[in-house]
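so my prof wants the structure for this chain in the tokens format not the other one, which i didnt know existed until like an hour ago. anyway here's the sequence
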Amino acid sequence: MATTEYMRKYRATPEGKKKSVISDWKFHGLIGDFEAIYQRYITTTHCELCGHLLTKEKKGGRQKHMDHNHETGEFRNVVCQKCNHQKLDRKVNKNNTSGHKGVRFITDKKIWVYRKQYNKKTFKISRKDKTQLLCLKFAYLILFNHKSLSKR
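here's what i got, hopefully its the right format
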């Protein structure tokens, strides 16, 4: 069996789904007892802040999200997307000296990096010149918005 086929089947198992979800949480800075947090996450059916029913689908309900402190990474609640976006601790990262979302300066490599997620794919652009990077960022934003508008 090919590795890609094996991994596709593994990710469909409960253990594979769990590892994938926890890996995503770690990538986004969540810290804590992941076993306990995961159990709470899979058993929660309603937003812990507003009480709306949480669904897996994007349409016809509110998606389940992890609310955590963006500075410390500590888990707070399982909430709907709307409640998660209303939190006040969302701000530009400390290492983001550009003031632009998704753009940061890597000091040890002395480069500017822009990351954008689009259709479950992550794009990463790096340049030594901040102006070049910002021009590319805005070109990509125009391209992404144009593609999403044409699908409507």
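also thought this was worth mentioning. Helices lie at 3-11, 14-27, 34-43, 81-85, 130-150.
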